[in-house]
Give the backbone structure.
Amino acid sequence: MSLADIFDGYIVDLDGVVHLGWEPLPGAVDTLRELSRRGKRVVYLTNEPRYARTSITSRLRGFGLDVAADSVVTSGWAAAIRVAEGGASVYVIGSAELRAEVTRAGGVVLSAADASTADRILVAGHSDFSYAELRAACRAGAAGAELFAANRDATFPMPDGPWPATGAILAAVETALGQSATAVGKPEPAIFRLAQSRLGPLTTVVIGDRPDTDILGGRRAGLPTILVGSAPVTAETRPDHIIADLPGLLARSL
Ligand SMILES: [Mg+2]
């Protein structure tokens, strides 16, 4: 018996599980195709805030996976829905694709020049982060805007080692504003429930490579968890199962 025999719904992390950087990890695509062949349902849940859901769907399709657009949930998209509530005006530290997600969600995205009139600030990692953005967020915060973040991840994995992520930039913003953000992405249980709502009432498991986000969040949402890889765990982040890589789901080891 394998783990894939136990579960019918899969909430699967992307970075470090399905791909690393822009390259699929060995055996990951074949495993996901096999799950699909067996009638299993998969939702991808990523803390990646730089790319729109449509971009991530295209990337996965480029790997040869048959992925529906609504089976991808990102922290950027979930955060965009949250900050856009009520048609709010938002100053965004983040990529052009994230700003477009906020606009699609019904928010009014402000320029840096208008930041002091923002209802909310949204912070997300992106490679063009600048002091000018930090200053604009500072003006928005001083004028009373609420602070939100896509997540608190310090880094994300890349083939040449970890790269700074949203949490690193958020630390600068929180320090400058003297306030703590409401984070939307993993390990917050709400984003797992959002992902689960796309699967329906199936026996669902959370799969990820980060104990502090994937496993902790899955546990908080009351779901069983599988850790991919060998990251150290604590009592709070202990998974139900550990596999070396995604093909481990199909190994007959139970
Ligand atoms: Mg990951």
Observations:
- Residues 124 and 166 are 5 Å apart (CA to CA).
- The first strand starts at residue 9 and ends at 12.
- Residues 84-183 form a domain with the Rossmann fold fold (CATH 3.40.50.1000).
- The chain has two domains: 3-47+186-249, 84-183.
